[in-house]
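TL;DR need structure tokens for one chain.
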Amino acid sequence: MTHRTRTRRNTYRVLAGAAAALATIALAWHTTDSDDEPAHAPDLHTRIDTLRVADEHYEGYDRDLFPHWDDLDGNGCDARDDVLAAESQPPGVPCHDLEGGTWHSLFDDTTLTDPSEVSIDHMIPLAEAWRSGAHAWDTDRRRAFANDITHPDTLIAVTPASNTAKSDQDPADWMPPAPGTACRYTRAWVTVKETWNLTVDTDERDALHAQADTCDDDNDNDAARHHRDTSMKDRLAKIETAHGREVKPGVTVRR
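>> reply
TL;DR here they are.
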């Protein structure tokens, strides 16, 4: 990709922003009501074309401009532990005692059993978000993005090796190596960009379209949307079990 300087980030140590307080913040950055969504979801190519194309903004990025890994809901568990509890198998592992859980890394199809060895990936890396529009956000919105667990695609548990390999690269430069994951990764990438109204550059857009050519459109119809919605509800239910608190999902931005 032309003149791109990719920074190597340290392995993510934690996953983001927990429960009710976070949901309140996140909802402030999403618009309208989920009942307004079309009955039939657009196909992946259409969704990619809807993303606004713009040059990337590199100047001024600092990871600390995205406050993250906080105990926003005050439940005594930091954001890493909240999300590990949400993604653990079997479900029901409490956020304050994660021993006994297992975690599946989508990127390399690996199972992890030690919570201290699980890394957490921002599907859209913070540096990529900055380049794609977050440089113009205020601190509260960047905090909401960095800690958004109301959408299951935003933050996921992965191995440290795959997290480091991805770094802050977009799909033009990196895709997960595990067989059968590229389409799911592409859809998740597009979903988070849609949700937070982030832009794409031309190489990124072309790479997303190239990958979409290999994906089954049926996975973006009503059944797929129902699966995504169900996944989100399952994740929130796990978080609520771990917290003893209600969590409300954010609502996807529509232009």
